[in-house]
Amino acid sequence: MTEIQTWALVFVALSFGVYIFIAWRSRVRETKGFFVAEQNIPAFANGAAVAADWMSAASFISMAGLIAFLGSDGSIYLMGWTGGYVLLALLLAPYLRKWGKFTVPEFVGERFSETVRSVSAVVAIIVSFTYVVGQMAGGGIVFSRFLQVEQGWGVAIAAVVIFAYAVFGGMKGITWTQVAQYTVLIVAYLIPAWAVAQTMTGIAVPQISFGQILAELDAIGQEFGLPVYTEAFTARPMQDVFLVTMALMIGTAGLPHVIIRFYTTKTVRGARYSALWALVFIGLLYTTAPAVGAFTKLNMLQGVQGVSTDALPSWVDSWRATGLVSVAEDSDTITSITNNAGDFAAGQADMFLNNDILVLASPEIAGLPAPIVGLVAAGGLAAAMSTAAGLLLVISSSASHDLYFRYVDHHASEARRLLVSRIAMGLAVLVAIYFGINPPAFVAQVVAFAFGLAASTFFPILLLGIFWKRTTAAGAVSGMLTGLVFTASYMIYTLEVFGTSANEHLLGISPEGIGTLGAVVNFAVTIVVSKLTAPPSHEVQEMVEEIRYPARRAVRATTAD
Question: For the domain with range 3-296+366-443, which CATH number is right: 1.20.1730.10, 3.40.350.10, 3.40.50.450, 2.60.40.1120?
């Protein structure tokens, strides 16, 4: 075992032990504790938990890599994912918290009808499964590189640990575990970034210092045939940059595993402050990611520029063993690099690098000490596991609380409902393991698909359900289904397994951006159908009126059913 593997094992084992201990101390025996943490989480802690829930493997592992290769166009992830929290905090979170229910399907069920509730529960499961695939894949990458565990086994190990602490404590255990996971992931992200910034520029503030290297990065990138890092719309057409950014924004506001977090606060005011703290905590990583991408890309290119293939840096051999880095056998020296496996297979580049390795490999590329490399491994797992746990809880609550309890056994006891929730979570883990081992794309791309689905289904009906009293059940269900089918069909069409290339994207629209158009379709269908059907009852319209005014009394007390 190498020194890096030893330190990685130490940090991973310690962090896993902490997660399991917290979950055991937070174990619950009631559905209110399992689903909404007894609605007793302070805003500061909930903000940290929201940030951990939000900063998934895509944020920690993949985002800086995408920015490194997309350059200026990579800002779609920064603007979309952070801007979405502003929409969530202003337009949805406080109103849904005041409504006082356990899940998003429960809100739309009472606002519209049981049919809409059932449809939204199924959609929540689909969105969450899509998202959790990226987390499992990210965990497998960490295990395969740093602990020399086969990626499939790495996914399984991470899934078992997540299942253990999620089953013990439900939302209560997951919340306090995520506070610990946020601490681990942000420390693991910032320390290497500070060290690399200090080494390369003499200023240990990456947000400020990375501007000094951009001209050099542009020049060396062009030598390798890469797009100009600081020039806009070189990697994506302008319309796709806009559509992806918007899809990520409204998808963020519509993600069920994020929305459910705001049900755990003590008050509506607490929900607002949770969103504020979450933005602060998220901002620490998101303002650092562009610098990490730039520093790592420059270090990487300088390290392989003109180097013969039998004298490459040690980190190349380490990552080649995972299959995420490849070097052309017929190349004598490295003169061109790609992050597109298809281009590499076609012989159009000497080296292929998967986007997902840049953050994890950054300390090695920069020559940082082994303990820092090991810490990054623990941070990557913390990011993947924190989000996966929240997603599994959404799947569990949708299956048990919104489907089983409503349609199979309405009089089920607390114990039986908890048992069904845990069984549903176990089944979800098994499915997630399979797709985590066989993901359809890069981690961040898979996650972006989930945002597109949430944007085209949940965001329109939640926004209209709160702010337009005339929205009807028929309109809501029609809009959700139309948006889902439209968006999912295009995403499936663009998957490489069907032979579709980026050049065949209709009108230059990527699958990550189609969710914006899906949301437009949803809005249009919902409004038209609502206008053509009878308006909601007077009681429903009064309830909608009440939740829009914070000074009024709560609509009703939260109940388990």
Answer: 1.20.1730.10
